Write the structure tokens for this entry.
Amino acid sequence: MASIRAALAAGRCCGVARLAAAQRVLPAAARGTQLAAAAGVARPSRRCLSTVSQAAAAATTLSREEVITDHPFNNVTDSIFEKIGVNLHQQPAHPIGIIKGAIYDYFDQQHPSTFAKFDDLQPLVTAKANFDEVLVPADHVSRSPNDTYYVSPDVVLRCHTSAHQAELLRAGNSAFLVTGDVYRRDSIDATHYPVFHQMEGVRVFGPQDWEAAGQEPTAYAEAELKRTLEGLAKHLFGEVEMRWIDAYFPFTEPSFELEIFFKGQWLEVLGCGVMQQSILDKNLEPGHKAWAFGLGLERLAMVLFDIPDIRLFWTSDQRFLKQFKQGDLSTRFKSYSKFPPCYKDVAFWVSDSFTENNLCEVVRGIAGDLVEEVKLIDDFTHPKTGRTSNCYRIAYRSMDRSLTDEEINALQEEVRSTIASKLGVELR
């Protein structure tokens, strides 16, 4: 039950969920040891990165120089670059790959030879594709470098698979599924990670479809959308109670969230809607209607497999990986270790430019996956000076071994010195 609540707290349902944050109040950067991409040099062992992640740095078609530049707008760190090309969604026996495969199976069974599948599109996209072409407002919070990884003002690491929607429509695709790794600067806890995986689905209809059904175009697309996604929910979760919640997303109208009643509580599964007509008219041709949905693969995997910590998806520990089999949705994760956490506090007077996401980027860049959580535990404003002090508690915990006081003290000291120099805060 706790793992279900954790998965829901992640807010990783889809790109549309994040893009609604400003309206619904839902739910940088020390680079550490540099990675020599050409030589495939690994980071020190204290970073506790998996061997699969290290190997991917050499395998990806993107070089470090293409992603981490000296442009003043660039905020991509080595710890993020190392994840590019890992492609957990392309590993069929990995929990992420298992969920992707199950969704593919459903669409192949229900709509044979209908949906084109894309799971190898490069994560480096234009800001226009990531934001403008899916109607994200110019002043939307998701465009901020505090939320998005920018290579330059015009190029980003995609923060949702919707970034490929317009280009695939222009290429003539009328039904497609896009799966890939997406990137967002975010908090650090058991349900948030700066790299995760989404699947986008789109289907286009013509006048012959809704006229044959005797329905208005929007009503027809909505009915087809709900029928399709209710079937998908049953395919993944079995016979469950479902409900539709009205929502707001910039690129669909009307918009919905699908919730299921699973293990005693209502869980949000995905966001979806009827595609904004202007997107279709501009990228395909007038006279069509379409639906679109987006879902987070980690969210579904955490719920279905009882995985309590999102960092586990990135481990190469066979005690984790061997528990899962391709095509098997019945696995329930069995914890193989629970090493004790080590807590360290850091307090400082904040600056005008300080943000929690920037703090988390620093901590993540230094401690990697050894950091389990960064949590604000005290917020104090001095009555005379008006200055604000924050105290954050950093939880260090390895999923594979016990940590020593020596290594944690070294990490914490590096965190303290780096936030002072990089974030402009005054340590207390």
Residues 342-427 form a domain with the Alpha-Beta Plaits fold (CATH 3.30.70.380). Residues 217-237 form the longest helix (21 residues). The longest strand covers residues 195-205. The two ends are 39 Å apart (CA to CA).
